[in-house]
């Protein structure tokens, strides 16, 4: 009798084990499916929109690449400008360049989220590919913008943590600079591109958010007046001396026409004569995301306090 029971017991154990494994596989599959399909509702500029709770493949058609990289979000497509930043070079090494005209290419990338600017073309087509969220540049300040990106990708806590830390570091650096140079020191930010010279206000990248908002340094009155409406102002070389403060920060493209620096007019500007000119890599200085802002803050700390 015992010999008959033993095979039966073994068979029952195998059946129970197989059923248990099947249930475990089903549960695991359901969990994976739930994670894949899990969404959150993000309150965008254009109203509520359902987006992935944990986006895995994001296409970025705006200036928010550094925000996402700092939050460890995987990016599968970016615009050309982001690709040119040496600060993103490692992370974007194998990420293809796309534009708002590359509908088929973006479809092939199989994004689960698209982030762009309100000025992008083909937004209605993008919305058919994946949830698409756009932002209006300058509608909110640069730190609030990062927080919004954090909310969008379900990493608000991480975004806020960086913001709090950045404020503390920037405040301390600003106080240190003013202690050395005085409360009334003025700084101008300049960039030459396509044979045109532009000066910038307090929210146009190129280190302006750090200088004028985070460090609380001043811009010359004439710069403030002329950049107040658009955020920047294009001028001729002859007028440049009127806009340069005690210090001049040049966001410089090495492949552009920088011949204005060879003119006697430029060389006679007091900031130039006093060796108060800081040249920065324009490609590294362009944006105002956490990675770029940290780089800019360190740049100014080094140059103002050396």
Q: How many DSSP helices?
A: 13
Order of helices and strands: HEEEHEHHEHEHHEEHHEEHHEHH
Major sheet characteristics? 5 strands, mixed
Radius of gyration: 26 Å
Provide the CATH top-level class of the largest domain: Alpha Beta
Question: Structural class from helices and strands?
Answer: alpha/beta
Domain module count? 2
Relative helix content: 40-55%
CATH superfamily of the largest domain: Nitrogenase molybdenum iron protein domain
Q: What does this protein structure show overall?
A:
Residues 2-6 have low confidence and may be disordered. The chain has helices spanning 2-37, 65-70, 80-84, 103-108, 123-129, 142-152, 156-181, 208-214, 221-227, 264-267, 270-273, 282-285, 290-305; strands spanning 39-44, 47-52, 58-61, 75-78, 113-117, 132-135, 187-193, 196-200, 232-235, 247-252, 277-281. It has 13 helices and eleven strands. Strands 9-8-7-10-11 form a five-stranded mixed β-sheet. Strands 4-3-5-6 form a four-stranded parallel β-sheet. 34% of the residues are buried. The chain has two domains: 39-154, Rossmann fold, CATH 3.40.50; 177-305, Rossmann fold. Helix 6 (142-152) runs antiparallel to helix 7 (156-181) and helix 7 runs parallel beside helix 13. By secondary structure, it is an alpha/beta fold. A hairpin with a 2-residue loop joins strand 1 (39-44) and strand 2 (47-52). Keywords: Signal, Transport. It is a lipid-anchor. Residues 56-306 form the Fe/B12 periplasmic-binding domain.
């Amino acid at each position: 009798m015992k010999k008959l029971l033993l095979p039966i017991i073994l068979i029952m154990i195998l059946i129970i084990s197989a059923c248990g494994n099947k249930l475990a596989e089903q549960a695991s599959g359901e969990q994976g499916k739930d994670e894949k399909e899990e969404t959150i509702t993000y309150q965008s500029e254009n109203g509520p929109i359902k987006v992935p709770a944990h986006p895995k493949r994001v296409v970025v058609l705006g200036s928010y690449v550094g925000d996402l990289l700092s939050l460890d979000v995987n990016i599968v497509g970016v615009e050309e400008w982001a690709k040119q930043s040496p600060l993103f070079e490692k992370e974007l090494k194998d990420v293809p360049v796309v534009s708002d005209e590359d509908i088929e290419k973006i479809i092939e990338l199989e994004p689960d989220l698209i982030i762009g600017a309100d000025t992008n073309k083909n937004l209605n087509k993008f919305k058919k590919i994946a949830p698409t969220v756009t932002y209006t540049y300058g509608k909110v300040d640069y730190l609030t913008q990062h927080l919004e990106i954090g909310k969008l990708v379900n990493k608000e806590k991480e975004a806020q943590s960086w913001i709090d830390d950045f404020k503390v570091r920037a405040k301390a650096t600003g106080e240190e600079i003013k202690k050395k140079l005085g409360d009334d020191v003025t700084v101008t930010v300049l960039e030459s591109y396509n044979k045109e010279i532009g000066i910038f206000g307090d929210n146009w990248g190129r280190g302006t958010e750090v200088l004028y908002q985070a460090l609380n340094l001043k811009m010359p009155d004439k710069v403030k007046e002329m950049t107040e409406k658009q955020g920047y102002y294009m001028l001729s070389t002859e007028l440049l001396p009127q806009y340069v403060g005690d210090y001049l920060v040049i966001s410089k493209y090495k492949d552009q026409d920088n011949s204005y620096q060879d003119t006697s007019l430029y060389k006679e500007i007091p900031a130039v004569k006093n060796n108060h000119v800081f040249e920065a890599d324009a490609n590294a200085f362009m944006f105002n995301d956490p990675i770029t802002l940290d780089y800019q803050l360190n740049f100014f700390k080094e140059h103002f306090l050396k």
